[in-house]
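Hi P.,

Sorry for the delay on this. The queue was packed all week, but I finally got your sequence through. Input first:
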Amino acid sequence: MLKKRDLQDCQSLYDLMMHPDVFPFVRHKAYSQEEFLFVTKQTMEAEEHGEVIARTILDEWGNPIGTINLFDIEDQAGFLGTWLGKPYHGKGYNQLAKEAFFNELFFELEIERVFMRIRKVNVRSLKAAEKLPYAVLANETRKSLYDEINRKEEVYDLYEIPKDLYTLYYMRHEQEVHEDHQLKEA
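Then the structure:
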């Protein structure tokens, strides 16, 4: 489902990123294949320095279909950035990728909170955030951060995913899966 960024995936990812329904919402835009290759290389180097955590999202057959990243890492927190190619919208990949990524961040890499800044005009992403039972609208509870990301004009909503809330969700979900498995065996 996820793997570390790899230069071999750049052609496929670039083609997916250029779709007009995807490109406006990509954080690190590249306007050519060469530029995308350069940006990917920079991202991989930044991960080596602990500045970012970057993964490629894969479909069931191991094909690259998007990216998921944690940017601006500071004090065991960072900002989530994710995009999927247009052919993969609405098929459940986003939630699966987020859960795999959050498992890695919270349970392996000692991240304590993930923030999502979502453009108020990005209805698809806002709806996806609202569906996450562990995401909290943080416009008021993290007012100083909300004001910082909207310094020039009010463009973004701010969501927070705290490790403890995600852990509670994860434990409940694992318990439900375990109970469902036991019922099927009986």
